[in-house]
Amino acid sequence: MVTIGDVARAAGVSRSTASYALSGKRAISAEVRQRVNDAVLRLGYTPNAGARALATSQTMVIGLLAQFLEDEFAPAMLEYMLGVSDTARELGYDTLLVTDGDGASALRRITDSRMVDGLVLLNVAQDDVRLPVLRAAPQPGALVGLPGDCSGLDVFDLDFEEAGRMMVDHMHRLGHRELILVSQPEHVVERGGAYVWRLQDAALQQARLRGVTLHAVFGESRQPAVGRSLHGLLDTYPDATGLLLNNEAAAAALPTVLHERGLTAPDDLSVIGRYSDEFARVFSLPYSSIESAPDRLGRMAVRQLVRRIESETGRAEPYVVRFVAPELVDRKSTAAPRT
Amino acid sequence: MVTIGDVARAAGVSRSTASYALSGKRAISAEVRQRVNDAVLRLGYTPNAGARALATSQTMVIGLLAQFLEDEFAPAMLEYMLGVSDTARELGYDTLLVTDGDGASALRRITDSRMVDGLVLLNVAQDDVRLPVLRAAPQPGALVGLPGDCSGLDVFDLDFEEAGRMMVDHMHRLGHRELILVSQPEHVVERGGAYVWRLQDAALQQARLRGVTLHAVFGESRQPAVGRSLHGLLDTYPDATGLLLNNEAAAAALPTVLHERGLTAPDDLSVIGRYSDEFARVFSLPYSSIESAPDRLGRMAVRQLVRRIESETGRAEPYVVRFVAPELVDRKSTAAPRT
DNA sequence: CTGAAAGCGCTTACAG
DNA sequence: CTGAAAGCGCTTACAG
Known about the structure:
alpha/beta; 434 Repressor (Amino-terminal Domain); 3 domains; 48% helix
């Protein structure tokens, strides 16, 4: 292994001078800088990450905690992960991916051992057991997903309340008076998936306001249950003319279900989902949707995290809770109801 | 930060004794061991990962290189990633996720700086530019995907040749005499996605052997092109009675396409894909498929990698190239052709 | 503008 | 069975 000592010797300078020449942290004569750079190239020197971390207390790694729970939809998670990983790299950080079932103890392991400079948590629950660990950690943390208690952390999420209202208003404006809202499975709610009820409660309230009947139900997230459950709903509420989906798995399953029933959107049924444009493409989903902006949320979380990591003042800045405004991407799956 | 020095002082022993008590690498009196353990618990000590890495030259991290290319299908990649990450954790390793566009220089960065003890590469191409870098690295590497040159590396992949033959034979046995094989986009082939032609060539040969007409074509991987291309194929080969898919995006788009044409599998068309059971569930795909076993391949790669990392003899063992035998998962999407 | 030295927090021969 | 010391490869005050 070639060390900075080798570089220094080859350049005929001391190790400290070699180090400073590379970091640029103090003035170095042009000639010495040149000799050091030449030596680096000639020997193929790269600083040892562990040694640097030990000396500087900076690892240049951020931890990404992603939980892949049985009843959650993995492909949706991937988009957040890539947003985080790509942004981290742009800002000079590598990403330690943690997918442990037990997120709290994994988090403790990573933070206590100083493997990372900061953390991004995905899929954050109302009363997330990882948060007390994260608050107690010496590293700053950023969340994608709104918990009950945001203290001491930066939080980024879609404005699910507004998304719920938008869905209802859009349908109401077209003339719909009876709608079905399919949320995530009840398990997700029980586990504290706050976005489920944030969207649902707002939608229900808006429906009351507009005089619209809204049947709010929990969906499923795995085949074949998700398909069966959609069939059941359409059987149960035959007069509903619009379908709102806050459930990626249900959205992915809907084309098949509609096909099996011989229905077409928007002729027979108007449909609005809540997922990203990328998700729509990947799953060939022809339904209008509220853009969930996973890449943007991942970027925002990492940017803020790195700001806190890198600046003294950043550490002390007040914590932020930032909501992305929902946007409706029109894919022509809604229309006036059949009369 | 609490260090092993703090633990040693609290336990009234030297730092080396504290270290040995924790590692168990030499005999320690029961009483001292007890005092050290108590101190660890009381102070909440966790070893500093960077310091340990520096002292031992072991990071207990493996690097996972995943390339998300524009014309490849991300959700399929996720399954491999989780197989790797979960297995790594079981074996005591964390996972550094690298998703850089430029895989070769990212790989060099990770290996030169000694951030990882070993590497798993996904999505390996015939003439993968990352392989020379990996071979030159001091850490061992394992591949998921078969390159042209396997020297110096452990390689794991699905037996795509056998998969191609199985698809053709299965259809032939049911009485089909004209089939369409939809592969990945031509870009994937040009970039060296060897599995595309490994399956295709074997399928073509088997078709000749059986007297079956096989139209082998490149598909697309993004909406809306993938749907249009499937429509085009069904228009071009109206007499084909069976469809073989070596293209996850095409499989995901097929339900919608068949719906739009008013076709049903297997009544109007027999279909076999090549994807995992998990993928079938996630995308609600009702088609029989050759199991691509991403989790198993990820596990195998990590197991072998860790064996090489951890044992002296493991380092020296001959390199392996191991193929997973394809299995056909029957979802009742094939039948005798309509006469 | 440059160098000698201390220190980051571990592990592990070397001594006893 | 235990301790004092060296060393892993860096960075960064401290001196000049």
